[in-house]
Amino acid sequence: MSMVKEAVSGLELESFNLCVACSGGLDSTVLLEVLVHLGYKPLILHVNYQLRGEESDKDETFVHELAEKHQLEIEVVRCPVEVTKGKGINLQEAARKFRHELFQSFIQRSPNNRVLLAHHQDDQIETFFLQLLRGSGLFGLGGMHRERNGIIRPFLEITKSDLKRFAIDRNIEWREDASNQENHYKRNQLRNVLIPQMLESNPELTDSVKVIQKAFRETQEELQTALSPKLETWKKQAYISFEEWTSLTLEEQIVCCYQFKWPFWIIERIRELKDAKLSAKIDNSPIFKTKDGFSWNSNFADLMQWEFKIEEVEFLPENFNHWEAYLDPGKCKGPIKQDIAGPADIIWRIGVKGKSSVFKLLKDSGIPEQWRKTYPVFKSGEEIIWIPGIAISKNHTAHQATSLIIKLYKV
Q1: Which residue, of 132, 155, 181, is where some domain finishes?
Q2: What is the total count of domains within the chain?
Q3: What is the pLDDT of residue 15?
Q4: What value does the mean pLDDT of the chain take?
């Protein structure tokens, strides 16, 4: 078996629903053909950026023909021209963002969904120097991962020439994109001019870069492992205090972005958010400011799918958060029940004098208006005792001397 086939067959993809991003070019066409040869039936995703006129349409037709030839499902997405063209728009970055949003949309449909991309060793080397020119740190210089966040890149150890040889030997046809030879963009300049020149001077350059990238990726994994306990806590709470966030190094903040699927520009905006007014929200993101930190909701429709549990406990924890309520049943005036708040409902929350409007708290916490009337709350009789993730009633809170403690929490 050739090294190209082995790169895919060794991944054990049988339990996954696969989507292969296919442009019609050499790399992605080879990946598709290998998958089919190994017995897989992936969904084909083709993005037509509508930037090369007739040539873009021919690419789309070619990929459609591949789908018909192999009897595969195909999804064609036409990227609006205004997404990639306009004043101040970086075309390549805008196109990359557009297609990655499509990838994540597929991945999030099911935990078994995976997207396969045909990036190869030459792309990896180009990425290293591109990130070096940008002054990137640990994560940029580490390059692409073979498997990460539902995306799989089988060919990262295989060169472009290996893929081309494989295609020619097996009479695989593909489409050539003439724009790859134009040196208007830094990546093309690196690919077509600078890297070939450097390789002439130092034929071992590629191996050196691979060693450096591997070391950086291993360091990334170490950071991820060290941060895992905190990441789990933050994920459960959907909250990070500014004190915790500012204590992280830039690399650790980037780990958080990977974990929560935030774009990296969020890091700079969180710095700005710290000095913003109460309940300020980061544009085009789920992140909003709370009193001492920031919180997030990625999909408010999931609120009604939350699962809560109630149980007796013997002791109070050392640290509290708004996703767990420790209650004194002796202070409750009726059975504890899940409900939704009304416009007139109030809560006497911990740390605040007087009463607070529940709807105002929901608004200040960044909950969209259309969801405030269905946001889950917990009541004892007619009194609100807990707004999950937002506030707990001081009139019902258990203390160390409480003989019977009830813990109410989000699973």
Answers
A1: 181
A2: 2
A3: 92
A4: 86
Q: Which domain does 396 fall in, by range?
A: 307-410
Give which of 142, 175, 177 is closest to 156, Cα–Cα.
142
- For residues 35 and 20, the answer to whether their CB atoms sit within 8 Å is yes
**In terms of domains, do 173 and 315 share one?**
no
Is 312 among the domain residues? Answer: yes
Query: What CATH number is associated with residue 390?
Result: 3.50.40.10
The answer to whether 381 and 334 are in contact (CB under 8 A) is yes
Residue 196 placed within a domain: no
pTM over 0.70: no
Helix then strand then coil, in percent of the chain rounded to 5, is: 45, 20, 35
Q: Evaluate the CA torsion angle 23, 27, 15, 67 in order and state its sign.
A: positive
Which stretch of DSSP H or E encloses residue 130?
Answer: helix 121-133
Mean pLDDT calculated for residue range 61-73: 96
Q: How many beta carbons lie within 10 A of that of residue 291, not counting itself? A: 12
The per-residue pLDDT for range 208-238, each reduced to its tens digit, is 999 999 998 998 889 989 999 999 988 887 8
- Asked if residue 35 is part of any domain, the answer here is yes
**Is residue 393 a contact partner of residue 347, using CB atoms and an 8 Å limit?**
yes
Instruction: Label residue 330 exposed, middle or buried (CB < 10 Å: 0-12, 13-18, 19+).
Output: exposed
- What do you get for the CA distance between the two ends of the chain, in Å? 47
Q: Residue 127: in which H helix or E strand, if any?
A: helix 121-133
- Classified as helix, coil or strand, 375 is coil
Q: Tell me the one-letter amino acid at 129.
A: F
The Cα-based distances of 75 to 20, 23, 42 in angstroms read 10, 12, 11
| Residue 198 counted as domain residue | no
Percent of the chain with pLDDT over 90: 37
